[in-house]
Amino acid sequence: MNWGEFAAAAPELAGLGQGLLERAGLCFLATLRADGWPRISPCEPFIVDGEMMLGMMWRSKKARDLHRDPRFTLHSAHAERTGTEGDFKLYGRAVEVTDPQQRERYAQTVENKIEWRPPDPYHLFCMDIEHAAYIRFGEDREALRWSPAEGLVHLRHPAD
Predict the structure, then answer these.
(1) Which domain holds residue 67?
(2) Model confidence pLDDT, tens digit, residues 4-18
(3) How many domains does the chain have?
(4) Rounded distance, CA 94 to CA 137, Å?
């Protein structure tokens, strides 16, 4: 399921996640190394034509990981320890984008937003979303989970 479909299925959760991702401009991507250990790498997520896209340096370790095993976890980035900003997570599989028109729309979006254009060659992946979650601590604590099978579920917060 692409980002647009996810946002239509779970607008509350997608709105929280998109707000966190856009505010930070950065996320952390977890992939699986060849030896099975997890790898965590910073990435800049961009939503283009309903797709969440991640561009990566040519032949980077994280791109090689995704070629070998497309499973990923994406986590919103933040730097405050109280958890009151919230944590957003996506789980799914990465799909490499080879279509020249999609790649051009991605490059144009990046250039418009951060005044930098990715130089060729580079890897570009769309995130095929299978599950999502959100948790926030503090007075406005909240815990949400989403999957296509269950839909959006408001969970009992661990602090309650």
Answers:
(1) 3-154
(2) 999 999 999 999 999
(3) 1
(4) 30
